[in-house]
Amino acid sequence: MQREVGTLPLAPALRARLAAAGFQTAQELLDTGPCGLSKEIGISREEALEALQVVRQECHGDAARTAGGSGATRKCTALELLEEEQTQGFIITFCSALDNILGGGVQLTKITEICGAPGVGKTQLCMQLAVDVQIPECFGGVAGEAVFIDTEGSFMVDRVVDIAAACVQHCHLIAEAQQEEDLRKALETFSLENILSHIYYFRCRDYTELLAQVYLLPEFLAEHSKVRLVVIDGIAFPFRHDFEDLSLRTRLLNGLAQQLIIIANDHRSAVVLTNQMTTRIGQSQSTLVPALGESWGHAATVRLIFHWDNSQRLATLYKSPSQKESTIAYHITSHGFRDVQPPAVTHSTEGPELNPRKRPRTEEEKQ
Amino acid sequence: MVVLRAGLCPGLTEDMIQLLRANGIRTVVDFVSSDLEDVARKCSLSYKALVAVRRVLLAQFSAFPANGADLYEELKSSTAILPTGSPSLDQLLDSGLYTGEVTELMGAPGSGKTQVCLGIAASVSLGLKQHVLFLDSTGGFTASRLHQMLQARTEDEEEQAIPGRLRLCFVLQLEALQRIQVVRVFNIYELLSALQELRDRLSQQVVSSVGPLKVVLLDSVSAVIYPLLGGRQSEGLALMMQLSRELKTLAREFSLAVVVTNQVTRDSSSGPLKPALGRSWSFVPSTRVLLESKEATWDKATTQRAATLAKSPRQPTGIQVELDIG
Is the domain of B50 the same as that of B81? Predict the structure, then answer.
């Protein structure tokens, strides 16, 4: 059976002309040759040659795949995928409850979306993950680098310094407790300067810059093959203001989602996005739902919703292909993203809360 | 509209084609619908040769009618009904997935479409020992969850005390996993290539790699089509229809059950949910099932889902059953 002309990746104008001239299968195109083709449909010889090049590539790709070659398709049996998944690492978040509900941490090769109201801790988790992805393998990390694409300008370097210092100290404590040689050797390269130099930071101010950045990302990742995490902090922001044409927005977002999933898959890295919340006004009540519409909800593979319950921060796993929905509580300290402390410790740090929606300013002594 | 080419049939030579083209006859349709005496006079070709060519072309390119009784006999012998692994869903679908048809599952994010697809793959691969092809366009296929489902199915009645039983379960699970092939396609052209490759392999009957394939699952079709629809691009709809034609031909010719998943959208922020991809796509699947979460908000976690029949050639629409995707 032949490939139909309509299924080949050619320019739409060219395709329309080919259909009008009566060409149906790829074989007919190849038989006609460039001169015949340029005469039949009235295009220049160079264009005909280019088109035939594309057709030949597609058909040879098909033939190679049929004959058993691997080609460029990502094809395997479920058993091979299972083995691959079992050896794949997770990026831990330092909050064991969150790691548990995610099944071990943020998964590589998947898109994770974090939605939440302002001030609930989305950017904090992103910064924590940018540090945690660099933890060496002997401590249970993936030893990768991070790309941080910032659209809102909320990336604070001094906060990352605090988080990184706490992480390095944590690893030192583990190394001392276990007294193993390779742990200590790994720690020599895991220092504050190293961590900061392996976070690649991009600032995008509007949606065109963001789209361009994601388009150029595969080349960047090909050069920096150790990158294991791509964070886009604030994917909602450039698309929410200044956008009149909503169907264009849906199209762009869907195209962006497909590009991100290709990046996540081909480079074996985790993609983390943060989203804002919007109010949906229903019959009798209004609820907070993630922004960017219904179709964006399908883009992410894993969806986490952060919300408040009086003054406690909660995280709900809303969508996941392998874990059940559940809710846990977490805490943000000066060291970063952590589990909720047992009640004996927290009540001493509770002070007067001026604004319950903003992170309370804890006055802990820096060590 | 096939262009006349030399070698298309025995009597058609290059000179003949040039003469015909000079008189405005370029495609097969032009040829068979023209008056042959007229053509013979204008192109100075022999009438008998033209009649012979027309006969061959008609035999090659036209469709032949079949009567209803033959069709029914053929359908009875070639259609199979595949269990989906969930008895309530089987009841909704009139005892299961029918081969030769396209079935669609639609739902909001988190409503369980991927879980139901994994369940179908597990049930067909383990229970019927048939091969399954899973086309993943969203990255949602998790092999460990599939393994979990297989474990639940093989180990539920067994007593672990019987020696060797655990090992037998393990072997069954491994075999079932090997029968499920996963292809990751992230744009429409890759998807069409993968379907073309499948069709080539099935028609050449390469048994070793494909085996007796019965189910093709596509999760999800809207992820690859959405970036193409709307705006000033006109080829989006054409590609969508090409895809639907490929899927339906595959289902009909090779007796496969094709399952696709689709998203839902709203007209306005408070309107009712409707399936994505519009009216044109709504004619493609013969059966449509809507999956919903029982709770209205995301605060309470549950594994219960409600499945409603939205379109079916066999059952009345509007039937609702409960599903557990846990």
Answer: no
Domains present along chain A, CATH in parentheses: 5-61 (1.10.150), 81-339 (3.40.50.300)
Task: Report the residue of chain B nearest A13, measured CA to CA.
Answer: B235
Give the global pTM: 0.81
Q: pLDDT tens for residues B214-244?
A: 899 998 898 888 888 776 666 788 888 889 9
Cβ–Cβ of A77/B203 closer than 8 Å?
A: no
Bridge partners (DSSP) of residue A76 are B182
End-to-end CA distance of chain B: 51
Residue that the structure tokens 């949602």 belong to: B140
Q: For residue A28, how many other CB atoms are within 10 A of its CB?
A: 18
Q: Residue B252 and residue A35: Cα distance in Å, rounded?
A: 39
Residues B196 and B185 sit within 8 Å (Cβ to Cβ)? no
Q: Which of chain A's residues have a Cβ under 8 Å away from the Cβ of B115?
A: 321
Using alpha carbons only, how large is chain B's radius of gyration in Å? Answer: 25
Task: Collect all residues with Cβ–Cβ distance below 8 Å to B219 and sequence separation of at least 6.
Answer: B113, B114, B117, B134, B135, B136, B137, B138, B140, B141, B260, B261
As given in the structure block, the two tokens for residue A68 are: 């058993």
**Record: contact A322-B145, CB cut-off 8 A:** yes
- Locus of tokens 């033959």: B70
Tokens 């000033």 map to which residue? B232
